[in-house]
Amino acid sequence: MPSPVSAEVGALYDRFTALGSASLGENLHFGYWDSPDSRVSLEEATDRLTDMMADRLHIGAGSRVLDLGCGVGTPGVRIARRTGADVTGISVSTEQIARANALAESSGVADRARFRQADAMELPFEDGSFDAVIALESIIHMPDRAQVLAHVGRVLRPGGRVVLTDFFERAPIPAAGQTAVRRYLHDFMMTMVTAESYPPLLRGAGLWLEEFLDISDQTLEKTFVLLSERINAAKKQLSDEFGEEMVDQFDPGDLVGIREFGYLLLVAQRP
Question: Can you spell out the DSSP letters for 43-108?
């Protein structure tokens, strides 16, 4: 699959952000549930995943955090309010940056949560600028993970940590699921990796692997099910507002049950 192009990813999210908010809520990412029968809402589950990642950053008041691919700012604002850290968020989407800064202002944390348009492939920050970096479902869109991680290693201070999530193949995708997976990755300009690819990627960026968790069972299936249910329950309303083709493109229902499609949480540190 061709690598995503930053400008095209930005245009995609300018287009899909409003639809994503209408269906996923203001957290444009997956949720985390402790068990398949958990009754936790999608909104609470997405906040749980943000908190799981933020807790692994080891940050507090005064820490400088880079939110790499900040979406509409909900995770970054939550981190700033919850930890007291100073958050800088970046995205290639002008629509997302506008909404993120508006959210920071309305939440009363505009002095500690600031968002700007920038490309993770060429981070415009000095070496050692940040105590921590969070990349929540953003590296999946990057044309070159090695280049992004090299920049992450550069802007982290010694001892700083990066926490990210990514899509990976838990096992070869069976023939019956390949069309759905290819469609999803293609439509949202994403790529996936194998678990084995990360240790050399991190070493090349001067980062040490601390934790690698397969959280597929706690994130993917339930998010796909709940999101598909929401989209289909409100399909006429959403189609009238966004167009039926766009709504169908956003619906992940055909991915339900493909357990080889995986979701990882990774923690690394700059020594």
Answer: HHHHHHHHHHHHHTT---TT-EEEEES-TTSHHHHHHHHHH--EEEEEES-HHHHHHHHHHHHHTT
Q: Which helix (H) or strand (E) holds 242?
A: helix 235-242
Q: Pick from 79, 76, 69, 87: which is nearest to 17 by CA?
A: 69
**Spatial contact of 75 and 99, defined as CB atoms under 8 Å apart:** no
Give me the amino acid identity at 151.
Answer: H
What residue segments make up the domains of the chain, in order of their start?
6-269
5 phi and psi, to 5 degrees?
-110, 130
* pLDDT above 70 coverage of the chain, percent: 90
Return the CATH number of the domain spanning residue range 6-269: 3.40.50.150
pLDDT higher than threshold 70 for residue 28 = no
Find out whether 120 and 148 touch, Cβ atoms under 8 Å: yes
Written as six digits, the tokens of 264 are 């990882």
Q: Is residue 12 pLDDT above 70, yes or no? A: no
